[in-house]
């Protein structure tokens, strides 16, 4: 049994004493970051995201992503993830955040890349004949009584599901024409589930 009195603590109602002791030990440990420690990093050796970004133009960044997505190894992995019902939005977040941490783009450009990157992933899945999920619906939301905000959200989600017709209707404003042409030139792939 944990003796909180030795630590100078009073037992809190509804809190497990072991959790309270663990929290106390972590909070009073010297093995953690000091507030402001990140401001003391060596300026001669900055992190990747602290330097000037590699890409500052939207088109250049999209071409980099397209090349990365269509690389033979990445292409198979991406299609495998999409076929396992990993949402397109989740994959988009992962790729763009990873690019940010590698110093490929800054946060502003990262936000501008969300829509075209998602379109690109949807187009790759469509060309390969893979059904994809744009966004997962939370099961609890489906069971709860829907208020007005949830109804609006569902309409937007339904509209995003209609984007599955992307292969023939890629948004010209979202993707540069060079990438649209490259997407259309890609050979149609057999499904990963085909023998």
Can you tell me about this structure?
- With 195 residues, the chain is mainly alpha-helical.
- It folds into two domains: 45 residues, no CATH class; 130 residues, no CATH class.
- The protein contains nine helices and no strands.
Q: Helix/strand/pairing class, anyone?
A: mainly alpha
Percent range for β-strand residues: under 5%
Mean pLDDT: 78
Radius of gyration: 24 Å
Q: H/E series, N to C?
A: HHHHHHHHH
SS summary, helix count: 9
Apparent shape: extended
N-end to C-end Cα span: 59 Å
Please indicate the count of domains.
2
Q: Helicity level, as a percent range?
A: 40-55%
Counting DSSP E segments of at least 2 residues, the number of strands comes to 0
Low-confidence stretches: none
Sheet of most strands: none
SSE layout and pairing:
Elements: H1 17-27, H2 58-70, H3 72-83, H4 88-101, H5 107-112, H6 114-127, H7 139-143, H8 148-161, H9 177-185
Helix pairs in contact: 2-6, 4-6
Short description:
With 195 residues, the chain is mainly alpha-helical. Helices cover 50% and strands 0% of the residues.
């Amino acid at each position: 049994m944990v003796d909180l009195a030795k630590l100078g603590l009073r037992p809190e109602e509804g809190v497990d004493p072991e959790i309270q002791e663990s929290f106390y030990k972590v909070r009073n440990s010297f093995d953690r970051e000091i507030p402001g420690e990140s401001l003391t990093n060596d300026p001669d050796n900055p992190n990747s995201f602290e330097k000037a970004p590699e890409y500052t133009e939207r088109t250049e960044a999209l071409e980099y992503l397209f090349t990365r997505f269509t690389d033979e190894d990445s292409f198979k992995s991406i299609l495998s993830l999409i076929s396992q019902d990993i949402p397109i939005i989740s994959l988009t977040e992962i790729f763009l955040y990873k690019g940010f941490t590698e110093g490929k783009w800054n946060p502003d450009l990262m936000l501008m890349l969300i829509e075209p990157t998602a379109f690109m992933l949807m187009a790759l899945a469509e060309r390969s004949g893979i059904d994809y999920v744009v966004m997962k619906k939370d099961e609890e939301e489906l069971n709860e009584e829907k208020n007005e905000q949830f109804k609006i959200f569902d309409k937007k989600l339904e509209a995003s599901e209609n984007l599955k017709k992307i292969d023939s209707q890629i948004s010209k404003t979202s993707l540069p024409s060079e990438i649209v042409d490259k997407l259309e030139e890609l050979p149609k792939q057999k499904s990963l589930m085909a023998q």
